[in-house]
Structure formats: C-alpha cells, structure tokens
Amino acid sequence: MTTPVPARVYRVRAAVGIVRLALQQIENELNHDVTGPELAGVLRELHREDEPHDGVLGALAQLLTTAAHRAEHLDTESDGEASCPLHEAADHLRDSTGQHIHHATRALHPDGEYDAAYLPGR
C-alpha cells in the first residue's frame, strides 16, 4: 500500500513545473546568438550582486533557509542533522555560486552593470 501524496506536495510539484518551464525559456534564449553583455545581463538576473535576494539564486537560497528553519522545528532531537545541510546549501548558493557567477559576468562585461537598454521596464 502506498502513502497518499499530500495536497501540499502536489502544489509544490506544480510550482516546480512552472519554475522549470521558466528556466527552460532562459536556456532557450542562451541557445541563440547572444553577446557578452547580454549573457552577463542574463547571468546577473540569476545572481544580483547588488541585491543578492533579488536573483534566482537568492530566491532559491531563501527557500532552502525557510526549509532549514522548518526542519529545526520538526527535528529537535537530531542536533541539526536535517537543518544544517540545508543552511549550508543556502549559504553555498549565496556565497560560492554567486561569486562564480559574478566573476563570469565581470569577464563577459568588464564595464560593470549592463546598460538600461538591456532592461526594458526597469
């Protein structure tokens, strides 16, 4: 007998599907001719050096931090066995992964932030 999947998991599964579609769209954009400044602009949307919480990595790191806090409340006897790896994963996204993306964007577009022409509506 299988355990029924809670409605919350179905909702999360649907949200993950939407995120995957959005990421696929970004990947499709990168499969076309793209300049260095344009690629740097795309990468900066993934990791915003000036506002790390605004980028995709910042949002994912925040989600992992929220999961870590929930794990702390659920597993009070394990001494961080579930929450510590989640906190570390969030920190890794913010720090290490973010730094790597930042270095790549600087190499692709050394003049810094991309021009407003690359940011319609901002």
Summed up:
This protein is an all-alpha fold. The protein has helices spanning 7-30, 36-46, 56-74, 83-108.
Helix content: 55-70%
Strand content: under 5%
Low-pLDDT parts are: none
Terminal Cα span:
53 Å
Task: Write down the secondary-structure element order.
Answer: HHHH
Coarse structural class: mainly alpha
Count of runs of 4 or more consecutive helical residues:
4
The number of strands is 0
Task: Provide mean pLDDT, rounded.
Answer: 87
Shape assignment = flat
Describe the structure in your own words.
This protein is mostly helical and 122 residues long. Helix content is 66%, strand content 0%. The protein contains four helices and no strands. The longest helix is centred in the last third of the chain and has 26 residues.
Write the layout of secondary structure elements.
Blueprint (H helix, E strand, L loop, with lengths): L6 H24 L5 H11 L9 H19 L8 H26 L14
Helix pairs in contact: 2-4, 3-4
What are the key terms here?
122 residues, mainly alpha
